[in-house]
From TrEMBL, chains A, B:
It comes from Aureimonas glaciei. GO terms for molecular function: DNA binding; DNA-binding transcription factor activity. It holds the Pfam family GntR. InterPro entries: Bact_HTH_transcr_reg, Chorismate_lyase_/UTRA_dom_sf, CP_lyase_PhnF, Tscrpt_reg_HTH_GntR, UTRA, WH-like_DNA-bd_sf, WH_DNA-bd_sf. The lineage of its organism: Bacteria, Pseudomonadati, Pseudomonadota, Alphaproteobacteria, Hyphomicrobiales. Keywords: DNA-binding, Transcription, Transcription regulation. Gene3D superfamilies: Chorismate lyase-like, Winged helix-like DNA-binding domain superfamily/Winged helix DNA-binding domain. GO terms for biological process: negative regulation of DNA-templated transcription. This is Phosphonate metabolism transcriptional regulator PhnF. Residues 8-75 form the HTH gntR-type domain. It comes from the Bacteria.
Amino acid sequence: MIAGDEGIARWRKVADAIRAMIDDSRGAMEQLPVEAALAERFQVNRHTVRRAIAVLQAEGILRAERGRGTFVERRPARIAYPVGARTRFSENITAQSRQPAGRLIASGREPATAPIAAALGLRLGAPLHRLESMNVADGLPMSMATSWFPAERFPGIVAAYAETGSITRALAAEGVDDYRRMETRVSAARVSPADAEHLACPADAVVLVTHSVNLDAEERPIQFSHSRFLADRIEMVFRT
Amino acid sequence: MIAGDEGIARWRKVADAIRAMIDDSRGAMEQLPVEAALAERFQVNRHTVRRAIAVLQAEGILRAERGRGTFVERRPARIAYPVGARTRFSENITAQSRQPAGRLIASGREPATAPIAAALGLRLGAPLHRLESMNVADGLPMSMATSWFPAERFPGIVAAYAETGSITRALAAEGVDDYRRMETRVSAARVSPADAEHLACPADAVVLVTHSVNLDAEERPIQFSHSRFLADRIEMVFRT
DNA sequence: TTATATTTGTGCGTATGTATA
DNA sequence: CTATACATACGCACAAATATA
């Protein structure tokens, strides 16, 4: 295909060639030729083309749709998500004139594991309410979150969230007028299969993973949460 | 393979079964049976097993080595990387009794593009020094960074970095005794092929992507940087 | 040190399923 | 209903890296 490229697998060369095609078109190419045509053009088997397309899908450059074709992804700008002591999902989203919504996915009562007990200042095994939720902006899924609350202090937190779709309002219903975020730990990973299902994203999407602790006005921990934000839809902004 | 699972692809079922095997072993399983054995056990073609293994590799659960076998990844704990106004890579790393090192990968002189000019408060096309570097802790690559500095104010910044391996010391050599970080924007993505080469990581690794601006004591922007941290080696910690 | 076997990686051919146009 | 286009699955063959006798 190219001179002096003996040691490189064909599917890599095909992937590079397709990437170059897209770059060269400068945004003009919206759809890829069909797999059979690409296989013919590069003189390889259709499987080899498919492997190349698979990696380009993983890179977020292409999106294949069964029965329709393979399309070049135009990536939308990320929503900025300022994180600070007073971070609230709904406020962040409404501030960008988008429509926020929180949906209860699942909930349960469970004993505190070591890291959560430590974060919340509880004894090991203390009863917690676990709340799995999804956050949406303008109907587009943005993130999944798992939150733990001390069950004794917040007996009705799950019901309150189910009704209001907002952690802030659910906490208010349980008597917490104000709270602030203490620490946010940020990492990243591939989306889990279960989250991918809810977020309606590719199985190999990348998520920003955060762990954070919220404190009430008396500096008592009230919530430990673990959120997964779709990395191609959100960008976190920290001011220091 | 399992009753009542008609609509699910075989490779998915195999992937789920392997994931369950690993979970069930509770860390005891270090190596997977060979592909042929798995194909026999699950009564599928070897390609089907390979596809399942491919997704588990993408999830970071497995690592295949040609000629040796397929191994279960034990994931090492991430290094905490506190980010604040006074974030310095070397201080962060030494604070955890690890040995930091910065290496100059490439450099160049180029005109400011619109976003960089805006971030640095320069006119469009103003001359910049671009500095590509790699940061290492204990000999293990941690991140790649691209930094831009106003070329007129910092004519010798590249040489100073090449000599010291530290942005802080290079800026000091150029007359900046102190600086602070203004804003950090955090997202995530798959590693680029070029970065994967330098970081010696899998081609499908996930990176935390940050964009940040540093200011000198007079609040003048002195540096715009774009860093890519390997997400499985580092966790950023923001205190708010 | 040298063969040989083992194990993963690549590539092709073929067939069939499923969603879309 | 038919043709198109991507998705899944199997079988075969050989290459490349590693392990073992």
